[in-house]
Amino acid sequence: MLHRSCFTALALSATCLALPLRAEEYLNGITWQAPPVVTPGETAADPPSDATVLFGKASDTENWQNISKWSTEGDVLVTGQGTIRSKAEFGDCQVHVEWSAPVPAKGSGQGRGNSGIFLMGRYEIQVLDSYENETYHDGQAGAIYKQTPPAANAMRAPGEWNTYDIFWTAPRFTESGELESPAYITAVHNGVLILNHFELKGDTPYNRPPEYKAHAPKGPIAIQDHNNPVRFRNIWVREFEPASGEQTREPYLRDGKKETPLSEAK
Q1: Residue 54 CB neighbours (<10 A)
Q2: How much is the mean pLDDT over the chain?
Q3: What gap in Å lies between CA 87 and CA 90, rounded to an integer?
């Protein structure tokens, strides 16, 4: 049998557990703006409410320059002659593109299902049929052309649809044209992370080393013609702006009604 004093101790312990424990809370002193509300698409392929749709149906060819020699098959865009460029221009952004390599597969290496997505019209992430098709690694699907291979080959078989989700940070230049900060890219191929905040060395030419040349803060999305009938669909872009806030007071600790600036805290 428990002594009465034990019951008293248990009761006090239960009372203590029920009381809220007080502790200092850190607050950073930043007044944040409310993030804008964005309605996501019904599926991962569908554009969110704030996206610019570059191609979703046949009539969207009006969103592109130099597209007269390309064709459509329903809601699919098929590569024709010449590189096309979006009329809209973007800086920091999220890009969604779906593409399918030709069937039947023809050719080998760089001659099989070759195209490319160019951010700002000059920085290429490679489109290529890399399904059981060997080529140089920094030229296969998902590569930043001639700069880095993808971290994995996530290619689907010819005729199946591939998805690129690209997160782009545009380069910055000073007023005098010097590089202030380079471009960065993160990319997901068919749900597989293939590029993680990769720092570009410059543009992505075939016949010379990469280099940066000053350009406008925004540029078009371009899709390359490489004489292969690659198909595209569901192309949309979201301009990206980071969360915004202002440091309205020094960071501080709060304990109930007591507030202590961090510089005065022990």
Answers
A1: 27
A2: 93
A3: 10
- For 106, the token pair is 């023809």
Distance (Å, rounded) from C-alpha 160 to C-alpha 180?
41
- CA 178/CA 121 separation, integer angstroms: 20
CA distance 109 to 127: 12
Say how far apart CA 115 and CA 232 lie, in whole Å.
10
What does the pLDDT read at residue 193? 98
Q: Can you give the pTM of this predicted structure?
A: 0.88
Residue listed under structure tokens 């992370």 = 193
CA 232 to chain centre: 18
| CA 228, chain centre distance (Å) | 26
Type of residue numbered 166: I
Dihedral sign for Cα 257, 262, 264, 266, please.
Answer: positive
32 pLDDT more than 90:
yes
Which one, of 150, 50, 151, lies nearest residue 96 by Cα? Answer: 50
Q: Is pLDDT at 41 greater than 80 in this prediction?
A: yes
Residue 13 pLDDT > 90, yes or no?
no
Residue 246: how many other CB atoms lie within 10 Å:
9
